[in-house]
Amino acid sequence: MTSPNASCHLCGSDLHVFADFGKMPIANGFLTEDEFENEFFYNLAVGYCYDCEMVQLAELVPPEKLFTDKYPFFTSSSRNMIKHFAEMAEWIAIDLTPGAIKRPLVVELGCNDGTLLTELRAYPEIRTLGIEPSTNVAEIAIINGHNVVTEFFTEGTAQGIVEEYGQADVIVATNTMCHIPDLHEVFKGFQVLLKPDGYIVFEDPYWYAITAQTSFDQIYDEHVYYFTVKAVDDLASKYCFELVDVLPQAVHGGAMRYVLGFNKQHRPTSRFRYMHWMETKMDWDNKVNGDTFYQAAIYQGLDLAMSLVNMVRKDGKRVVGYGATSKSTTILNAAGIAPNILPYIYDTTPQKQGKFTPGTHIPIRPYKEFKDDDPDYVLLLIWNHAEEVLAKEQEYIAKGGKFLTHVPYVRIMDTS
Ligand code: TMP
Ligand code: ZN
After folding, report:
1. What is the pLDDT at residue 344?
2. Which helix (H) or strand (E) holds 261?
3. What is the reported pLDDT for 62?
4. Index of the ligand 1 atom closest to the CA of residue 73
5. Closest ligand, as measured to the CA of 215
6. Rounded-to-integer distance, Cα 394 and Cα 87, Å
7. How far is the CA of 292 from the centre of ligand 1 (A)?
8. Residue pLDDT, tens place only, 368-395
9. Quick one: CA dihedral 85, 91, 96, 97, positive or negative?
10. Could you give the 3-state DSSP secondary structure of residue 111?
11. Which residues line ligand 1 (CB under 6 A)?
12. Which has the closest alpha carbon to 150: 171, 162, 135?
């Protein structure tokens, strides 16, 4: 495949690039018309490192292009995610910071608008601190009364935190670690920040959930790494940490929660050992797996584009999009879906409304206008929130409205 010079961002070995989705804009780069001309593009391709086993992007976009003062992702925009964070807060409080620890410190990397920190307030014994480099979302967390360090997490940041607050009992990161190219710096920071018997917890999209569902739209500029149990275990071991538990999560279309501690501090669970063994059986080292995934992804994009063309051109139906997600940038661009077949997308995020989708330039309309629209079909670009959306849109469904999805394969959803 292309990109012969790509090398692993963690260990420098050659990267076997197995999926190339071509020219791609920034996934969260929703833009105005006057910005079309200078839009930034890069090549979206994914590869596998035979040495450290990490699946990763071949080409990286400089972080300053991604997490700026305009970063439009707000965790609390989904009810599902708020529920998820409430459960996570309870799990941290009960399982990881038992009563014997006095005023435990929980530090969250990539705290976004402070959704998890807010849920942790239900446990007043816990002290919290957020770290968030995107200033606009961090400001919301600060307005909500949280302590936030507005910078990228490094060994230096960790030293500063230890001086001011002491070492952390728990370091947590949700959908953050996979965004950070230099994980070595982060793990060095963990060594400084974590108490000897503390826990590191992070959850991110799980590579084998992506391959199992052909949810290739999870692949975009912000997601540098696509973790597996084996790759995380390998990385952790380089910094005297070990992976002791893994907990599959339904969020983000299939994520994995990884629990780590310093070597020999906590007993690895049988669940971890089982998942590790399962991944060995997956035999990802076999090149065929990458090629099969790529072929399925290309077919899915083509199938979606052709289905839309048939619905609109042949059958004269009206299809609109639902959820201007970062994921949708990958599928819309890879499949070449433009306003001629998908004229606009509804979205609840005010910062996106009135703007256009990256690359494909589809207008984004405020969600509140959806109920007066009555399109024949809705393309569900937030397929990972399907349950929440279908529950919310019973009125549209009762009127005969239909949802089209592309994950794991292109079809009209059964809403009966
Ligand atoms: P993301 O997948 O990149 O986080 O984007 C999710 C987008 O979907 C965000 O802009 C909010 C929007 N959204 C809706 O429009 N309606 C919904 O019901 C939900 C859950 C999200
Ligand atoms: Zn490597």
Report:
1. 98
2. strand 255-262
3. 84
4. 4
5. 1
6. 27
7. 30
8. 999 999 999 999 999 999 999 999 999 9
9. positive
10. coil
11. 73, 77-78, 323-327, 347-349, 352, 367, 382, 385, 388-389
12. 135
Element (H, E) at 282: helix 270-282
Write the pLDDT tens digit of every residue in 261-314. Answer: 999 999 999 999 999 999 988 776 666 788 899 999 999 999 999 999 999 999
Asked whether 234 and 283 are in contact (CB, 8 A), the reply is: no
Say what the pTM is: 0.93
161-202: per-residue pLDDT in tens?
999 999 999 999 999 999 999 999 999 999 999 999 999 999
Count CA within 13 A, CB hemisphere, residue 177: 30
Question: Distance from the CA of 75 to the center of ligand 1, in angstroms?
Answer: 9
pLDDT band at 2 (very low <50, low <70, confident <90, very high): very low
Least Cα distance to 297 among 204, 211, 209, 383 occurs for 211
134 C-alpha to center of ligand 1: Å? 19
- In 30-117, at which residue ranges do the beta strands (DSSP E only) sit? 41-49, 55-57, 105-109
Closest C-alpha among 204, 176, 205, 208 to residue 190: 176
Q: Around Cβ 413, how many Cβ atoms within 10 Å?
A: 16
Mention every residue, 6+ apart, whose C-beta is less than 8 A from residue 281.
none
Report yes or no: 74 and 112 within 8 Å, Cβ to Cβ.
yes
Ligand 2 center to residue 136 CA distance, Å? 34
SS3 state at 225: strand
